């Protein structure tokens, strides 16, 4: 079976990619910051097939060439590693932009040096698609957001949406590198990713749902969400690696919901929780729809978003992150 490498192997999405790769018989090299940190990588070592076919290796994204040996001899690379802060970091350039942008450039440089890498699958985000002033304007009720859309870096900077800026610039860097170096690159753009959490730490997208349930969110924001199951995101990465016809960007989303709909759904499912019922303002509700038609046409199917939400909540309860 083929050998592949996964950066950010112990992250929320990376862990699921490793899990499904092992289940499919792949030999996996997982790049992590510290392979000896059992608290952060222990869940990977317990996965079925890990003992026989998973090797964890140290990888420093900001150190050029640090992944050369990890990628040597592999057939493909899944690059998932990138900071996903829950608050603005003290040093945006050092803590967020450099790891995302320079880290991506270094990963692709190492992949291009390998004589065996056939394709790189990059984890981007809908944050590289929708972060523009009028994406979800209430005036255009028929708006459909697809892979042709790009976030506006200047607007991201103006509103201090630095995560969106990091994902946008990192993806643009990847496409520029791939074009200049003849690297076969496919990009996944998942929306808000939910479902069972494999690592021991709480990730940013799960925090969104927790905020609606644990009382920390007191008002319903005027914003749109796209939801997709984490297992489907992992499947889509492997799906894109295994199909020669896969190309370009792929938006990964099962359902588009306004925050109002999210609150109503959660209130129905979990009436005992402290779900907000007050809206942040009286402005017209934003509207719009994500389209994942491109990857669906390749045969990809998605789990209903409500199931992703339910499994997310159940996972939080099991780990003691939610007690309602």
Automatic annotation (TrEMBL):
Alphabetized GO MF terms: oxidoreductase activity
Entry keywords, A to Z: Oxidoreductase
SUPFAM superfamilies, per database record: NAD(P)-binding Rossmann-fold domains (SSF51735)
The NAD-dependent epimerase/dehydratase domain, residue ranges: 4-247
Signal sequence coordinates: none
InterPro entries according to UniProt: Epimerase_deHydtase, NAD(P)-bd_dom_sf, NAD(P)_dehydrat-like
UniProt name for this protein: NAD-dependent epimerase/dehydratase domain-containing protein
């Amino acid at each position: 079976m083929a050998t592949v490498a996964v950066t950010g192997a112990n992250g929320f999405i990376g862990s699921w990619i490793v899990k499904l790769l092992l289940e499919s018989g792949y030999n996996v090299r997982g790049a992590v910051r510290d392979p000896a940190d059992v608290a952060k990588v222990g869940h990977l070592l317990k996965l079925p097939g890990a003992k026989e076919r998973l090797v964890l290796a140290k990888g420093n994204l900001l150190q050029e060439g640090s992944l050369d040996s990890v990628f040597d001899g592999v057939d493909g690379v899944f690059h998932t590693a990138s900071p996903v802060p829950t608050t603005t970091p003290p040093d945006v350039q050092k803590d967020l932009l450099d790891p995302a942008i320079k880290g991506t450039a270094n990963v692709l440089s190492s992949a291009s040096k390998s004589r065996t890498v056939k394709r790189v699958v990059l984890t981007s985000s809908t944050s590289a698609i929708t972060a523009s002033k009028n994406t979800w304007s209430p005036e255009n009720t028929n708006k459909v957001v697809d892979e042709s859309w790009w976030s506006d870096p200047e607007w991201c900077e103006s509103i201090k949406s630095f995560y969106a800026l990091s994902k946008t610039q990192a993806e643009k860097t990847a496409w520029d590198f791939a074009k200049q170096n003849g690297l076969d690159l496919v990009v996944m753009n998942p929306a808000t990713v939910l479902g069972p959490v494999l690592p021991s730490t709480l990730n940013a997208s799960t925090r969104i749902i927790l905020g609606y349930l644990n009382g920390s969110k007191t008002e319903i924001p005027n914003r749109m969400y796209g939801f997709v199951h984490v297992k489907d995101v992992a499947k889509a990465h492997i799906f894109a690696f295994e199909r020669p016809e896969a190309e370009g960007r792929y938006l990964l989303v099962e359902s588009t919901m306004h925050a109002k709909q999210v609150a109503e759904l959660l209130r129905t499912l979990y009436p005992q929780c402290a779900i907000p019922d007050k809206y942040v303002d009286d402005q017209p509700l934003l509207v719009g729809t994500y389209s994942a038609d491109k990857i669906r046409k390749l045969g990809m199917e998605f789990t209903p978003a409500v199931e992703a939400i339910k499994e997310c909540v159940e996972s939080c309860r099991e780990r003691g992150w939610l007690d309602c």
